[in-house]
User: Which sequence fits this backbone?
């Protein structure tokens, strides 16, 4: 936090002419801009929010919002957002450059830097790990090169640095030397390699084993890099990484702190209204009626016999005058008269009513804000569901395209062999498999497949009928069962002697499989350490004497928010020629569930 404060202060002082402390909450204004600084602390956690709003006339209003969160451990983070109310392109803020240069900022495996990183041949394993990282949100831009073309490498690195000036803090830029470019092509394969003198944008979670995933990672070709102005390339790369950043899901930790600041700001405004409304009216004008003024002089002048007590009486009078002055100051009156006291009592009554109204208003604002937070969360869920549905649709469409191409190729092969009838004959019933009507029907069909055995709880399976409204999970579950059936058959016939994971990655010809994105080979260590007991399911005694077995391999049946269904399986080969399904139901607890 001290370093973040120092960088933000330096940026405000040198670029925005605000030389103000950031360790206290305050508001500032100058010319056409306003600056608000807010600090919160709770249970060892410290939060800083700096918001700068600049009115730049025809170019619109620019809002810079910095939030820095500091707590014990490694959960510190910084969120920097810059917006323009006219939707104008936002150049990399100077504040982002200050922070990237001074702090070790990361995004998953990405290490943010203000310049490209050169990768050598010995760095390729690290590059592959970086590209495959699902935790990162930002893109990785990779530029390839080739020594045989005679183009110098060092000027190319500098040129990539110029092109990528607008991605600072949003993406990592890697430039492969010629040897690294060739080594990466061998390791990643033709579909995922980066050609020489091109820049490829790799999205999070590259699946190198997937034959279709390569389509997500676009290439900016040599011709475009050579023929377009540098400013055009800079703007294009900047827009690509900004679109990716804008589409990322809201981080729950950032949302929590943002909302904490918002609610604190509401309370601060209410307190400010109360202070201004109920401050005593010291120095108010004199009353119009003074006939009933209280005479504080003694009723009887002291006689000569009483002169000995004169000093004590003066002291008593002075004390009473001080008390009356206190009454006037507290009640906000100029003199103690019947009229002034009556008006003071009226004001007190009204103020009490106003306080009740303000408290009710505060409660209403809090309720509206909570409702708004709920709508924001619901909107985020719907947006994620839409993204997931579009991704699933794209995957299905790609598989359909491949199937159509294969059918066309096979029909051509049949005609070349003189078989003109087969392409037009109805498919025999033996080759068709209708989808079950519901999950109870699925379990009934499983009873007829002796090599794929369900050992789980049917009640958990039945719950899916309520959430799988379009039968997406049911269809995938049935496809997975048929895939397991073919896997056991392939092993029995000698067409396959490997494990289930290898089978799904590269199935033998003529046997069914499922998309690679629908298969999870295992659970990570943190999930098993925390919630491993949820993944222990029944098996026969000949599989394990305890009649229980931990199952980590699973099929991802559908994406339905936090309840996205799963099917957990255990491959008993080679001990038993059978696959056991221990669970079909809603998503079990892991590090991503709420």
Assistant:
């Amino acid at each position: 936090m001290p370093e973040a404060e120092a960088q933000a202060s330096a940026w405000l002082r040198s670029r925005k002419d605000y030389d103000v402390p950031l360790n206290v909450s305050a508001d500032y204004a100058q010319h056409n801009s306003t600056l608000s600084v807010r600090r919160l602390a709770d249970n060892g956690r410290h939060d800083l929010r700096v918001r700068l709003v600049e009115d730049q006339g025809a170019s619109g209003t620019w809002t810079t919002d910095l939030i820095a969160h500091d707590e014990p451990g490694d959960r510190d983070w910084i969120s920097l957002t810059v917006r323009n109310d006219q939707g104008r392109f936002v150049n990399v803020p100077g504040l982002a450059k200050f922070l990237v240069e001074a702090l070790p900022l990361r995004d998953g495996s990405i290490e943010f830097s203000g310049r490209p990183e050169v990768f050598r041949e010995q760095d390729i394993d690290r590059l592959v790990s970086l590209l495959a990282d699902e935790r990162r949100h930002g893109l990785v831009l990779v530029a390839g090169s080739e020594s045989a073309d005679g183009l110098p490498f060092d000027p190319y690195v500098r040129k990539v640095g110029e092109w990528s000036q607008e991605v600072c803090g949003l993406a990592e830029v890697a430039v492969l030397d010629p040897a690294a470019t060739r080594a990466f092509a061998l390791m990643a394969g033709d579909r995922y390699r980066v050609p020489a003198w091109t820049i490829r944008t790799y999205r999070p979670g590259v699946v190198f084993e997937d034959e279709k995933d390569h389509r997500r990672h676009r290439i900016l070709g040599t011709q475009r890099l050579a023929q377009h102005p540098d400013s055009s390339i800079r703007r294009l790369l900047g827009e690509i990484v900004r679109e990716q950043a804008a589409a990322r899901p809201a981080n729950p930790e950032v949302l929590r702190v943002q909302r904490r600041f918002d609610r604190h700001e509401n309370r601060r405004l209410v307190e400010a209204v109360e202070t201004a409304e109920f401050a005593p009216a010291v120095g108010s004008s004199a009353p119009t009626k003074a006939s009933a003024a209280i005479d504080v002089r003694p009723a009887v002048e002291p006689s000569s016999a009483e002169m000995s007590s004169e000093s004590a009486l003066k002291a008593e009078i002075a004390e009473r005058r001080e008390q009356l002055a206190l009454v006037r100051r507290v009640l906000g009156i100029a003199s103690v008269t019947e009229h002034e006291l009556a008006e003071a009592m009226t004001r007190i009554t009204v103020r009490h009513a106003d306080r009740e109204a303000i408290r009710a208003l505060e409660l209403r604002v809090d309720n509206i804000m909570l409702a708004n937070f709920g709508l924001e969360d619901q909107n985020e869920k719907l947006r994620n569901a839409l993204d997931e549905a579009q991704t699933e649709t794209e995957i299905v469409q790609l598989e359909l395209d491949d199937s159509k191409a294969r059918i066309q190729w096979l029909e051509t092969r049949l005609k070349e062999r003189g078989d003109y009838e087969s392409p037009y004959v109805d498919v025999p019933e033996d080759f068709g498999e209708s989808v079950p009507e519901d999950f109870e029907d699925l379990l009934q069909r499983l009873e007829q497949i002796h090599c794929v055995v369900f050992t789980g709880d049917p009640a958990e399976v039945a719950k899916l009928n309520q959430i799988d409204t379009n039968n997406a999970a049911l269809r995938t579950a049935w496809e997975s069962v048929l895939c397991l059936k073919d896997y056991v058959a392939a092993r029995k016939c000698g067409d396959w002697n490997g494990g289930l994971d290898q089978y799904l990655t590269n199935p033998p010809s003529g046997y069914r499989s499922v998309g690679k994105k629908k298969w999870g080979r295992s659970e990570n260590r943190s999930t098993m350490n925390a919630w491993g007991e949820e993944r222990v399911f029944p098996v026969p005694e000949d599989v394990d004497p305890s009649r229980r077995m931990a199952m980590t391999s699973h099929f991802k049946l559908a994406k339905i928010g936090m309840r996205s269904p799963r099917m957990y399986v255990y491959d008993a080969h080679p001990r038993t020629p059978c696959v056991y399904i221990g669970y079909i139901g809603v998503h079990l607890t892991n590090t991503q569930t709420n």
